[in-house]
Amino acid sequence: MAMEYSKLVELYEELSRTKKRLEKTHIISEFLKEVSIDDMEHVMLLLEGRVFPSYDAREIGVASRLMLKSLSAATGISQNKIENEWKKQGDLGLVAEVLVKTKKQATLHSAKLTLKKVFDNIRKLAELEGQGTVERKTQLIAELLTSAKPLESKYIVKTILEEMRIGVGEGAMRDAITWAFFGKETGVSYTKDGNEIIVEDRDVYNKYLDAVQSAYDVTNEFAQVAKAAKSKGLKGLESIGMQVGIPVQAMLALKVDTIEEGFETVGRPCAIEYKLDGFRIQAHKDDRGNIKLFTRRLEDVTKQFPDVVQFVKKNMKGKSFILDSEAVGYSKKTGKYLPFQNISQRIKRKYDIGKISEDFPVEVNVFDIIYYEGKSLINEEFRKRRGLLEKIVKQEPKKIVLAKSKITSDKKEVEKFFKDAVNSGNEGLMLKKLDAPYKPGARVGYMTKFKAMMETLDLVIVGAEWGEGKRSKWLSSYAIACIDDDGNFVEVGRVSTGLKEKEDEGLSFMEMTRMLKPLVILEKGKEVKVKPKIVIEVGYEEIQKSPSYSSGMALRFPRIVKFREDKGAEEASTLDYVKKLYEGQKKS
Ligand code: AMP
């Protein structure tokens, strides 16, 4: 029997009553035990507040305005009235709950909503195109809201506006799947205070956990993982392989503060490469010749980079493969590398793609290969993977090349390489372990990064203020936040330096205003609150304790270094990290 949406809403509610991670994990795992294979995909995606896997380029694309219209259509209450209520409550989900409650008392209408119906209608929102779209979208939303109970409508609205958060990260999801389907094998439970996991045998537990994690790392879809675990157990998980066309979590680099520390982590000798200041592209080619490109956040950017598609098509030997690379922008005039900021606009660009690729060309620097001719290479040594690359990449400068690399155990040589790297516009160096496998999604020290810069923070913009005088058309001062232990965004200050007044000089106030405007969720005088989406890299002179901000910490003299287009809000710096830097400061 098809699951009712109300069941999922009960789960959301139950989850919202606890902040403890293990309790949340337990609640989800108990729920998953009861979910049928047919409902699994819908449950897993909606739990994360989505209707598409994270790597899918489709977006629901419903703005607050359209939601107001739909709420009005569903309840018969005027848009003005709803808008006033919204200003008071600051959250359209809550507004929907209240409105539907009032309306329901009057009509006593009660059809039951299935999970599938909610899912399908929301998906359709993303697929509509062309004439009459606004009307069709309004209808689809209103249809759900008229059959929804008050609480259901709250969650429907939040999901459609992509504001749904249950405070459960990927780690807890992985644990929940393990507990749900391998609870017996691992004997997992947790202490009464909800703080610690109890297992009969740690090794056995880790074996199942790793299997779930590995399956996730190559599919990026908990639905597939949960289905395999439920229907075929451990074997099912182990048989999930990489699929060309579906992005794999990128292996991450560990930061080292000295070259010596780098050697200690990756061993001697090791490979050293320039740390290029571009953005990561994972390029897939399947045996029919289709090419797909993904960012580090696994967003599909194939359409945005027709030039890169061509390089991969023409300059690579092989029918099917998955490459890891960094695309670096260069100046058309001088040929020199440009900082990431200059080409970042290409990532989100939806129009005039041909022109922008000509104006802001990139060179692809291939540094790894994880799949070739039908076989996964992640368990091969890095040295071998690099060796294969040397055979199959037809290098053509300003199009596609191999990342410049050297094998050495000599510190002096590394120092020289570092200087050359920085002098030619790179961020620093990577030191890589020669006999290491490729561990998707892991920061395990198989590759390390060594940068010369002061440690900056990646912070999320959660609010802004309209400027004054000549800046009055721009949101020109930004409230910036990091992430606390519970996954909340807590402020660490306000920043207004670092952006340009003219558009062609780099990231400008105008551009930032354009990005923030659609994210506004509340306006009060000159202040606005925005959906936490935009991540910026922020430099500062010092970190202080401060009661003025919700994090209890404040940055002194913050300035915007760049827009971290490649990062999502959930990847922002944590409060723990800010505190660690604060403590470090005291020592030095
Ligand atoms: P960070 O973003 O500071 O954590 O540094 C890791 C990133 O450096 C990777 O995700 C890549 O996008 C980038 N990178 C630049 N050059 C290289 C390289 N030679 N090998 C691996 N990653 C690189």
Report what the structure shows.
The chain is α+β, with helices and mostly antiparallel strands and 588 residues long. Among the domains are: 254-451, D-amino Acid Aminotransferase, Chain A, domain 1 (2-Layer Sandwich); 457-584, OB fold (Dihydrolipoamide Acetyltransferase, E2P), CATH 2.40.50. Helix content is 41%, strand content 20%. The protein is built from 21 helices and 22 strands. The strands form 5 sheets. Strands 14, 15, 16, 17, 18, 19 and 22 form a 7-stranded antiparallel beta sheet that branches. A hairpin with a 6-residue loop joins strand 1 and strand 2 (197-198). The mean pLDDT is 92. The structure holds adenosine monophosphate.
How far from one another are the termini? Answer: 64 Å
CATH superfamily of the domain at 254-451: DNA ligase/mRNA capping enzyme
Mean pLDDT: 92
Estimated share of beta-strand residues? 15-25%
Helical amount among residues, as a percent range? 40-55%
Short description:
This protein has 588 residues and is α+β, with helices and mostly antiparallel strands. 41% of the residues lie in helices and 20% in strands.
Helices and strands, with pairings:
Layout: H1 5-16, H2 21-33, H3 37-47, H4 64-75, H5 79-89, H6 92-107, H7 115-127, H8 133-147, H9 150-160, H10 170-186, E1 189-190, E2 197-198, H11 202-219, H12 222-238, E3 254-255, H13 259-266, E4 270-275, E5 279-285, E6 291-294, H14 306-315, E7 321-329, H15 340-343, H16 345-348, H17 353-359, E8 362-372, E9 375-376, H18 382-392, E10 400-402, E11 405-408, H19 411-423, E12 428-432, E13 447-451, E14 457-466, E15 475-483, E16 489-495, H20 509-516, E17 520-524, E18 527-530, E19 535-539, E20 542-545, E21 553-556, E22 559-563, H21 575-587
Helix pairs in contact: 1-7, 2-10, 3-12, 4-6, 4-8, 5-6, 6-9, 7-8, 10-11, 10-12, 11-12
Residues 250, 253, 273-276, 280, 296, 326, 367, 403, 430, 447, 449 line the site of adenosine monophosphate (AMP).
